[in-house]
Design brief:
single chain; two-stranded parallel sheet; binds NADP nicotinamide-adenine-dinucleotide phosphate; seven-stranded parallel sheet; 8 helices; Rossmann fold; alpha/beta; about 250 residues
């Protein structure tokens, strides 16, 4: 059952040059949404916008480093200047940097937090006042399915995503009274440049991921976890006591 129609909505997408962000932009343009795309690669953004614009769909873009609060503020301002509103923001910008113990570095943790956590928090800070005024809006952030237990070497990525999952849940509870939806997207493995476009059993394509995400938004879901065949084993292993969990993780 559809809770929300996407056609004619204004959608802001961060990380629009990436695997999931680009697939979402393409699908949203096909659904008749007007787009505001951001990322750091100017040429790619311009090219994507040019491809997606047509007589029914407007597309604008702005370069933005999401780790820089001022740039996020300017990005939101520009989107409101052009369209007068943002109905939906889908925040996909993120990085995956491993941080093995032998070369452990707080810099990697800080950089991951700045992009994966604060890169979303800054958008909340600058979008929410507009959305409270409008008494409507949707902000969907992309966390990860693996946001509850650790993987060896992934302390930077997973701690930034765990923080994002919790913060977005807190904000979701508060935002309801302003008719603002906050959605936490929790993908399993998706074939994109982030995981070197890995293919293989169980890995979904960026296009499939985008379809599932948009379905979840249309249905008004609070948390969009996918694909189901990855969700089930991950959520079972989340419940394991540390001794069993460590044994299982040591096999990977
Ligand atoms: N692929 C997976 O298996 C998987 C699984 C779980 C969660 N996720 C999450 O899904 C989201 C999308 O990832 P993806 O797989 O599509 O990866 P991707 O292809 O590497 O795309 C990442 C996007 O983030 C943007 N980005 C990175 N740092 C940025 C910064 N400082 N400022 C602005 N934009 C920045 C990149 O754009 P520019 O380089 O142009 O800035 C790019 O558009 C990420 O948050 C990721 O953590 C992915």
């Amino acid at each position: 059952m559809k809770h929300k129609e996407l056609k004619d909505r204004v959608v802001l997408i961060s990380g629009a040059t990436g695997g999931i962000g680009k697939a979402l932009s393409t699908l949203l343009a096909e659904r008749g949404c007007n787009l505001f795309l951001c990322g750091r690669k100017e040429e790619q953004l311009t090219e994507i916008c040019k491809t997606l614009s047509n007589k029914d769909v407007r597309c604008f873009s702005k370069t933005c480093d999401v780790a820089n609060e001022k740039e996020v503020e300017k990005t939101v301002e520009k989107a409101y200047k052009i369209y007068g509103k943002v109905d939906i923001a889908i925040l996909t910008a993120g990085i995956l940097m491993k941080n093995p113990l032998e070369k452990f570095s707080s810099k990697i943790i800080k950089e991951s937090m700045m992009i994966n956590f604060f890169g979303n928090i800054y958008f909340f800070e600058h979008l929410v006042p507009h959305m409270i005024k409008a008494n409507s809006g949707t902000i969907a952030v992309v966390s990860t399915l693996a946001d509850q237990r650790g993987y060896a070497g992934w302390s930077a990525y997973q701690s930034s995503k765990a923080a994002l999952s919790i913060a977005s849940e807190c904000l979701r509870l508060e935002a309801k009274k302003h008719n603002i939806e906050v959605i936490t997207i929790k993908p399993g493995n998706v074939s994109t440049p982030m995981i070197q476009n890995q293919k293989g059993m169980g890995i979904v394509s960026a296009e499939k991921a985008a379809t599932i995400i948009l379905q979840g938004i249309e249905q008004g879901r609070e948390i969009i976890s996918f694909p189901l065949h990855q969700v089930i084993p991950v959520r079972i292993s989340d419940k394991l006591p540390a001794k069993f969990y460590d044994k299982i993780r040591s096999l990977f």
